Request: fold
Amino acid sequence: MGETNAPERADVIVVGGGNAAFCAAHAAREAGADVLMLEKAPQDEAGGNSFYTAGAVRVAHGGAEALAPILDEATRARLPETELAPYSEADFAADLHRVTEGRCDPAMVEIVVGKSTETAEWLHRVGIRWRLMYERQAYESGGKQVFWGGLALGTVDGGKGLIADHTAAAERSGIRIRYESPVTGLLQDESGAIVGVRFRDAGGTEREARAGAMVIAAGGFEADADRRAKHLGAGWERALVRGNPVNTGEVLDMAINAGAARHGDWASCHSTAWDAGAPPQGGNRELTNQLTRQSYPIGIVVNRDGKRFLDEGADFRNYTYAKYGAEILKQPGGVAWQLFDAKTRPLLRTEEYDSHPITYAEANTLEELAAALGIDAAGLRATVDEFNDSIVDAPFDPTIKDGRAARVEPPKSNWSQALDAPPFYGYAVTCGITFTFGGVHVDDHGQVLTESGSPLPGLYAAGELVGGLFSGNYPGGSGLIAGAVYGRLAGTTAATPTPPQP
Ligand SMILES: Cc1cc2nc3c(=O)[nH]c(=O)nc-3n(C[C@H](O)[C@H](O)[C@H](O)COP(=O)(O)OP(=O)(O)OC[C@H]3O[C@@H](n4cnc5c(N)ncnc54)[C@H](O)[C@@H]3O)c2cc1C
Reply:
């Protein structure tokens, strides 16, 4: 370890290099601040979980025409063939309350939902390119591309495009970014105010950086197996990390040790069906989100005994996928298989199911498929026969909740199709953890609060490191918009702190 050099100085220091951090940095810079970003990862591994995303962003909107001004040329050319129902603020808020079973902080919901549209428009002005995600969120029906599940807007080139656009915008506006510079401590003055950070620079030297305000946007603790086991419970150390391998939660702990209050649900997280052969400790920067397997509502999911264990069609994928990783983790060996046949295979998301390498098998009989995948063949045969015989007579339509149920235990509420047309396909999945839901408590301006509810002077926060919005489950596309809304708020306030009240 080297000596401590002269401190760096800035008006606002932003800790992290993902979407929330960039939003805070852009907003602070727009407000006139000299901004320094400290990113733990080297430049070619930077961008946090945000880099690994599909770039899906949930916003309230008035339909395709209303979104048109921020969409790219290619999408605008497709609008005549597009059917996108308006998604109101009330719809968005109701989805957050429903999927978290009322455990979301209502004040935070109001802020994220109420500012979602204007924040997407602001990001467009910053330089983020937007499109509609036909290949992920729409099915062809009646000659139109019909969007489903309240989610349509995405960034061009997914998370890779998002981080590239953020980085280019930061370069244009003169934001300074130090890569390979993990923050190792927060500096507090004698009054308790946060006045700077300690970090290790790319050469390994311990240094200080001082500023009028700090915005911490360093993610959750999903990539730290010990913290996972401690907060989420035994077994979670086995989950595969879907995204950034260095989101290990130390900055969150630093904030709590400095007096920040915890908020939200520290015992649950976002986790999904993830290729069983994926790397354990962090995603693949080439494939990123392609390792996810999200077309299960069209098929069935079984465990090693050949038994189903969840309602694949309980709701649109966007409202179930983030809680089903935890269900897979509970199965024998922590693995499961998504099964499809020749009828349903063409409906799967191509970017995920045509991705290579992929852990799967195909066979002309269920018995051969079971043998190839290591599933109990008799158990699978019994499950499939019972399932096939229990499907109600209703038309299949993946663009709506079609009520085509299978009346078995557990039920499949929608989109049931008999598994009877060879070849059969089985995709091996395990639990991939995305991000943790617990974090620090912030006020309406993104300032960190203490246990007593008073602001912690000098400290602001955004993104996954903030708790309160999600619990047990999550509506797809909400993480990026939450980070953007709170990042923008925190950056703006940090650059123009309100003077203390007498
Ligand atoms: C595979 C995958 C797909 C996803 N798809 C979507 C999607 O389509 N839509 C959506 O809304 N959400 C999606 N998410 C969730 C989404 O990634 C997060 O909600 C969002 O990116 C969080 O942004 P953030 O800036 O808070 O965190 P991150 O993007 O993770 O950024 C945290 C940053 O902090 C840095 N850091 C950590 N520790 C330190 C330290 N000590 N010092 C300095 N820096 C530090 C990290 O290196 C990183 O740059 C997905 C996540 C994954 C993993």
Observations:
- The two ends are 44 Å apart (CA to CA).
